[in-house]
Amino acid sequence: MPYTDGDLAAKLADEAGKILLSVRASGLFGGKALGKAGDQTANQFLCLALREQRPDDGLLSEEEKDSAERLAKSRVWIVDPVDGTREYGEERSDWAVHVGMAVDGVPVLGAVALPGHGQVLRSDQPGKMPAAPERLRMVVSRTRPAREATGVAEAIGAELVPMGSAGAKAMAILRGEADIYLHSGGQYEWDSCAPAAVALGWGLHVSRIDGSPLVYNREDVYMPDLLICRKEHAEMVLHEVQAFL
User: Fold this and answer.
1) 94 marked ligand binding residue
2) Per the annotation, does 5 bind a ligand?
3) 56 a known binding residue?
4) Closest to 101 in 3D by CA, of 68, 63, 59, 42
């Protein structure tokens, strides 16, 4: 039976995650070589599988040479074989595999695998999130927290939660480990397409930090900033971040 788009995204993310765990467990690579081996192996699997299963769709991957052909496509798969290569190489759990799809620029479908947690979160199978605590929690970069994020956290009295990959940060909200993900340090389309799709599918607020929508499959794949949070906190965060723009 052919895979639905949702099942295909989840299958690919899950299998790529298993491949990455096997590469790491082999003990054949260390340091930066492990990250490179993982990226290349997972990317080859994802791109070959997508071209086999969805030959008429466009494709954009962090680890694949970009092609202008995708710009003429309505449906484009946007993947990141290892989001959080550093964390993967350090044998941490806060890294992810992203398999997302944008239709006419909108992130409509995605799956984010968290292999370190044995979990795949899907846009088409939303779950129930626990209630937010009295003191909100904001996920930020482990190594370079953005000025806007730390400033907003201070303004609203939120606790900072350092974490690795963009996918891990976004999924931390769904997993009940955080409430706000505000990023302003610059990313690329593959960093956020799948997490944005999953967050939208679960009923969260997703936007740029000026409140405008995230738009994908552009010629320039750089994306300066984003906000993912519970809908009830969006207006407050968007208001506070204006002081830092």
Assistant:
1) no
2) no
3) no
4) 59
